Amino acid sequence: MLYLYVKAFHIVFIVSWMAGIFYLPRLFVYHTQTTDHEASERFKTMERKLYRGIMWPAMVISIITGLWMLYLVPSWFSQGWLHAKLLFVLGLVAFHFHCGAWLKAFKEDRNKKSEKFFRIVNEAPVLLLIGIAIFVVVKPF
Prior knowledge:
This protein has five helices and no strands. It is mostly helical. The longest helix is centred in the middle third of the chain and has 36 residues. The two termini are 27 Å apart.
């Protein structure tokens, strides 16, 4: 029964984290399009609150609940799908930290990335999420 509660919370916080991972690069797209100082400052506030107030806590709780599930079901360590999933999760964590670096560049008014760059980059987490979902649900190996 405990496992099911942990799994439910894991899913809730994964959804929250992914929402932020999908939305922050979209904010970066809009931020690159603005030339107005007031609008730029508003985007900085929105980006900071999303990253620190939603994405960070959601990522941390997702990782904690994921590790808790592994503790509750240690037999997963011997299954290949878990290793593949964790590799993709590391990709999401790396993307999360890249978002933090881009956020800092915007904060310091030194962003050199284009709108097109952020539109393309916004697709990477989708591919990682598809892989994770397939590994967890289908367990192909």
